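In the current project phase, our protein records have gained a structure token line. A sample record follows, to show the layout:
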Amino acid sequence: MGFRDNLVMPVMLEIFTDDTTTPIHTQMSLYEYNAEEPDLLKYDLSACYAASDSKNYAFLVPGRFRDIVAGNLRQFKLFVIMSVQAVINVSPLRIAHLDVQEAGSNVLVTFDLLDKAPYKGDVANPTVEI
């Protein structure tokens, strides 16, 4: 049996009490935990969805903004995610395959909007999404 430098091991944390008046039983599963700040551009949940469970959207940014977009593409992509999230009231994790390309003198932005999750947050009181 060998050893690896970067061992990735799933961990299950289970918390419970035997107190019958206020019983507690909680399970959490952690896999590849990382304490760094999450990066929305790296998350891709599209593999969890069938192709029929997403819709493709596209829009053009006028060419006069092309240099601004190209100057900080990462920041532009984050602004697109935040804007789409705010306008249509969805989780940013549902915005997948965000792509920015030159389209003649304009900038073409495309992304997939994944279907809503069966339950979001508290399963007993799910948040309503469109």
User: Anything to note?
Assistant: Helices lie at 66-71, 73-88. The chain has a mean pLDDT of 85. The longest strand covers residues 95-103. The chain is about 15% helix and 30% strand.
